[in-house]
Amino acid sequence: MSEPKKVDYDGRLHTVYRSGRALQANVIRTWMETFTEYASPARPLTALDLGSGTGRLSPALAEEFGGPVYGVEPSAGMLGEARQHAAHHAVTYLEGSAEYVPLPDASCDLAVLFLSWHHVADKPRGAAEFARVLRPGGTMFVRGAVGDRVPDLSWHRFFPEARAVEERIFPRLDDTVDLFAAVGLGEAAYRRVELRRVESMATWAERLRTRSISTFEHMSPDQIEAGFARLDHAVAEHERDVEFADDADLLVLRRGA
Q: Model-level pTM?
């Protein structure tokens, strides 16, 4: 199977990502509470937010765990958005990647990969870097998706081809677990996290129209056009706010003491 094309976040995507992929406050709270379940109770904890993008989680990680937080991102455009719009006194945004994390050995208590693992080109090297920067007993969170366990998401019903794309481009769970186990990061848990939010169909459709979900980069123009036509029909039928409930995959890994 050929590798999926690399998504260019320094082109159009960095200009729309912050608005298109914004997380509601209650969704961020759900993630912080979930991470806290598995993290050390000690405070402060140093965290690595790898693939931090526009910084949508980094400040919350600093507030939850006391900082410092290092948001590491390979895209200059995404870094610029984070530094301008998601500044926090305990967060430092750095240029880097999973394969080249610009932090010392054993410098982090936590590492978060939030929808970025499937973008990593050299996964064995990336896994080794996480093992290097995590302290003994440190915890790593890999927020899916998982190619062999793609959940049914709200937007998929309008873009049915998206599921097949994600099954192809996202790594399998057992492959990911084995890769990290080889560098001393053992599986501590795998679970689905339910994310609920309330918003109008029109607002949701407007965010989808930014095509800031990277899956769109692997779909044809005809598939995208047909999907938005279906979505427009749904918007016309729903004038009130709608509650959305979607599942998200989370793999928790822990470095041996």
A: 0.95
| pLDDT tens-digit map of 215-230 | 999 999 999 999 999 9
Class for the domain spanning 24-196+245-255: alpha beta
Ranking 1-5, 47-51, 85-89, 245-249 by mean pLDDT, the lowest is: 1-5
Tokens encoding 211: 């095509």
